[in-house]
Amino acid sequence: MKTIHVTNGPQAAPAIVLGCMRMPALTTDDAARVIQNAVELGVNFFDNATCYADGESEVRFGTALKQSGIRRENITVQTKCGLCLDRNEFDWTKETILSSVEDSLRRMKLDYLDILLLHRPDLIFEPEQVADAFDCLEKSGKVKYFGVSNVSTLQLALLKQYVNQPLIFNQLQFSLAQSQLIDQALYLNNLGTERSICRDDGILDYCRLHHITVQAWSPLQYGMFKGCFLDDPNFPELNQVLLSLAEKYHVSKAAIAIAWILRHPANMQAIAGTMNPAHLRDICEASNVALTHHEWYQLYLASGKFLP
Length: 308
Ligand SMILES: NC(=O)c1ccc[n+]([C@@H]2O[C@H](COP(=O)([O-])OP(=O)(O)OC[C@H]3O[C@@H](n4cnc5c(N)ncnc54)[C@H](OP(=O)(O)O)[C@@H]3O)[C@@H](O)[C@H]2O)c1
Hints:
The protein has helices at about 30-40, 55-70, 95-110, 125-140, 155-160, 180-185, 205-210, 235-250, 255-260, 275-285, 295-300, and strands at about 5, 15, 15-20, 45, 75-80, 85, 90, 115-120, 145-150, 165-175, 215, 220, 225-230, 270. It is an alpha/beta fold. The radius of gyration is 19 Å and the shape is globular. The model has no long low-confidence stretch (mean pLDDT about 95). Bound molecules: NADP nicotinamide-adenine-dinucleotide phosphate.
């Protein structure tokens, strides 16, 4: 497995992370096999969130991890907090952050988290409260590293000003079919396409400037969980180019789609959500593919964009 450098973060992090959002659909036995298979492939980094299936995703992961026999210190466990769907609000208060971490540790039967991310911005967050919460969690040894998800440039800059720990990750949606993170730069000041509208606040370049690693969520999906674009008849041209490159590199189409994300010089991680061990094996073939500059553009254009 290709590893990436995460500034101020865990050493030699795998370029591919396993997202556990879909794990509640599995039995504990199957989930244990999914975890074992991932670790065998070098995907020893797991993403979760308090809100996935109302905590069931963390419960299933924790039980399956124990059953898998894999040692805690050999894996990286990341979870996210602050998205309080039960209350219909987002909450970054100190009290919620602290109680959320306690709940996650209890559900996963762990003593500490490697990484805690704030899931989505609380519109009325007070950075002092986040800073206090992070200090408590660091001092108690309950969390080693901190980061955010779906956070815009200025909100991230504001938060950075207050917290004492480096923010090492920003988890953002990014895939061949959902590439608004990079599109706007290409169409700047262009009245002919709505892609010229800045929807992301230049967050990717901000993260690069501040050595914050981007984790790409839903790397094979289009829309908000509309489906996987692989073999989807809505993406004929993309699937054709994926297939021809898959044949060239003797890997799967899924691997080429992930290699496209890893080829970006921002040095991102891709968070794969498959719960199918064979699919994860296919995806991990991306680790051995270095797309050329031209191939990267071929894929980008085949996904429905044009050069202005
Ligand atoms: N921060 C956020 O706001 C946020 C939001 C959403 C997700 N996430 C994170 O991102 C992770 C991944 O999200 P996701 O599950 O939507 O991502 P994804 O990897 O883009 O999509 C996974 C889905 O694609 C399917 N798929 C179909 N054919 C496949 C193939 N050949 N290879 C691989 N997969 C194939 C999978 O089915 P099979 O299982 O049958 O393979 C699965 O249903 C989540 O688990 C979560 O950790 C974060």
